Amino acid sequence: MKELTPWKPLGELGTLRKEMDRLWNRFFEDSPLSSMMTASWAPSADISETRDKLIVKAELPGLEAGDINISLSGDLLTIRGEKKKESEDKDEHHYCLERYYGEFQRTFRLPVEVLADKIEAKFDKGILTITMPKSAKAHKKEIKIKVK
Fold first, then answer.
1. In what order do the strands lie in the sheet with 127-133?
2. CATH number, domain 40-87+96-137, options 2.60.200.30, 2.115.10.20, 3.30.70.3270, 2.60.40.790
């Protein structure tokens, strides 16, 4: 004897909707339209903290140090620049263009106060490394708990 299972029309609609959303998202991820619809490109970055400094490492492939501008305003660190398009060969036929060209900007809110006059920036093999020493105020102080 077969068991009867209740029919849940709303459950089936939920499944259909999830499948349609997944299809829609996949279409735009794989489509050339996706790059045109995004506002701009922003480089990937890692931010780390040691006892005495903050370190920001940003990936900027294909750029030169002169293409990058770094500024600090209060607790906001901004990296901006422009990746210029390579000149095209008139006989060249493109099948796919995925690389981004144009201006970019990334702004990070620093979690601690840094010594602005001691900031160092190095650029090597497409990686920008910004080292920012913390100010004396930013160093953590452990507080001992008194036991009665």
1. 45-49, 53-59, 127-133, 120-124
2. 2.60.40.790
The tokens of 10 are what? Answer: 């709303």
pLDDT tens for 2-57 read: 666 666 666 667 777 778 778 777 766 655 555 444 446 788 999 999 999 999 99
Return the amino acid letter for 2: K
What is the pTM (predicted TM-score) of this model? 0.64
Give residue limits of the domains in the chain. 9-38, 40-87+96-137
